[in-house]
């Protein structure tokens, strides 16, 4: 397994360009199963999860034509597709459950493995299943697979999610596109990645309208040929904003819409960062002294993203005083704390709340990644540590960050990848 070696402390300076969004690309790629005509998707990030999803589509019968830089894909579906999503492909990635909705909607049957992914919480698929059941899907779970079928086309219905769920919202929207009649989804997740999915589907002739957390979908018989560019990755953008703030850096972050990380930018201003915003870029200048924040809370969008929690925790370790972070989305999302403590962090966990005692002087150490976002938090911490750190199991990180070490090297971080 590859690992990173980082020699700290580092200061970031220069320009960095944000890649396409992994979390927007995955549901868009899954939704291509609805199409009879070719689809072109641009601005895909070159990360492991995208490769996994493309391999999954290939196993179902899609023809995958990748551009030389692997950032544009043309997808052509066969008239007769397979409907078996095997465990061997699904086990590494939570997002693979998103093929269930389009398979059942288009082909009226599916055998889809229960998914794997990061060890950050239960994330059950029951919201997906109960919503699709209301659209007419019958299912049973056997030997770790969801065996699903429907009598003819799905039928539109009104569905209220008991809890806001990104994945269940995406799966239901995709499935409802080819359902008979009107579907009304209430208490939806409204993350920018979900709006990107509906923009993509509407570009192909779907009839989807939003009103707050309510989504109305008028089913259609088929979707048209389309070409679509995926939005930029807001978590990557937020991570680089934290890197600049943390290291007293001066960084221009470009090729994304700053509106998608408003809550995170507000926090960075509170800690003392100077931020200049333009239409598709921003500049972050880190403060000499980082101010603590009493209670950061993760929330569904437009709140502070749970995917930014570990990065913000590293920032608070360097704040001049005591801070706290409440994790409201996933129950196991403090797995990185033990590793930060190895570097010298003073953090106390009480249920879903972390108390961070600042002014930490990190000393380099050997570290182990537990999940995708924890991995990048360890990279940030190693960047401000005195001495050398090695970060093991960075395959987690490769699932969601494109060429991270190359981008970091260009802005002044002393980092190298050791291949094993």
Question: What descriptive keywords fit this protein?
Answer:
30% helix; alpha/beta; 24 strands; UDP-n-acetylglucosamine1-carboxyvinyl-transferase, Chain; 420 residues; single chain; 4-stranded mixed beta sheet
Describe this structure as you would to a colleague.
- Helix 1 packs parallel to helix 2 and helix 10 runs parallel beside helix 12.
- About 2% of the residues have low confidence.
- The chain has 14 helices and 24 strands.
- A four-stranded mixed beta sheet has the order 22-23-1-24. Strands 2-15-17-16 form a four-stranded mixed beta sheet.
- With 420 residues, the protein is α/β, with parallel strands linked by helices.
- The chain is globular, with a radius of gyration of 22 Å.
- The protein starts with a strand and ends with a strand.
- It folds into two domains: 203 residues, Alpha-beta prism (UDP-n-acetylglucosamine1-carboxyvinyl-transferase, Chain); 208 residues, Alpha-beta prism (UDP-n-acetylglucosamine1-carboxyvinyl-transferase, Chain).
């Amino acid at each position: 397994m590859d690992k990173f070696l980082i020699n700290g402390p580092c200061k970031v300076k220069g320009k960095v360009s944000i890649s396409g969004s992994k979390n927007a690309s995955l549901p868009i790629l899954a939704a291509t199963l609805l199409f009879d005509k070719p689809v072109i998707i641009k601005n895909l990030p070159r990360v492991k999860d995208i490769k996994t999803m493309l391999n999954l589509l290939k196993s179902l019968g899609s023809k995958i034509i990748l551009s030389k830089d692997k950032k544009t894909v043309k997808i052509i579906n066969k008239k007769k597709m397979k409907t078996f999503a095997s465990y061997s492909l699904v086990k590494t990635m939570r997002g693979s459950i998103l093929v269930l909705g389009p398979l059942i909607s288009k082909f009226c049957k599916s055998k889809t493995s229960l998914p794997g992914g990061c060890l950050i919480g239960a994330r059950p698929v029951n919201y997906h299943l109960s919503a699709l059941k209301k659209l007419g899907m019958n299912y049973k779970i056997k030997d770790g697979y969801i065996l699903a079928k429907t009598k003819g086309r799905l039928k539109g219905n009104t569905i209220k999610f008991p809890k806001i769920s990104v994945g269940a919202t995406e799966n239901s929207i995709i499935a409802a596109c080819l359902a008979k009649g009107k579907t009304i989804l209430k208490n939806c997740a409204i993350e920018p990645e979900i709006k990107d999915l509906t923009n993509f589907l509407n570009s192909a002739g779907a009839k989807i309208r939003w009103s707050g957390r309510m989504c109305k979908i008028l089913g259609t018989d088929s979707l048209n040929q389309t070409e679509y560019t995926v939005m930029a990755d807001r978590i990557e953008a937020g991570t680089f904003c934290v890197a600049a703030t943390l290291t007293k850096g001066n960084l221009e972050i470009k090729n994304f819409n700053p509106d998608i990380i408003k809550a995170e930018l507000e926090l960075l201003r509170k800690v003392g960062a100077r931020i200049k915003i333009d239409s598709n870029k921003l500049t972050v200048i880190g403060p000499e002294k980082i101010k603590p924040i009493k209670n950061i809370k993760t929330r569904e969008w437009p709140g502070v993203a749970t995917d930014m929690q570990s990065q913000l925790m590293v920032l608070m370790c360097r704040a001049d005083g005591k801070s706290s972070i409440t994790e409201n989305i996933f129950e196991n999302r403090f797995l990185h704390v033990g590793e930060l403590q190895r570097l010298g962090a003073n953090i106390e966990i009480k249920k879903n709340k972390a108390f961070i005692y600042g002014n930490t002087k990190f000393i380099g150490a050997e570290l182990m990644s537990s999940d995708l976002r924890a991995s990048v938090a360890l990279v940030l911490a190693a960047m401000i540590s005195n001495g050398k750190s090695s970060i093991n199991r960075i395959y987690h990180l490769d699932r969601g960050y494109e060429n991270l070490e190359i981008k970091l090297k260009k802005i002044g971080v002393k980092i190298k990848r050791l291949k094993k």
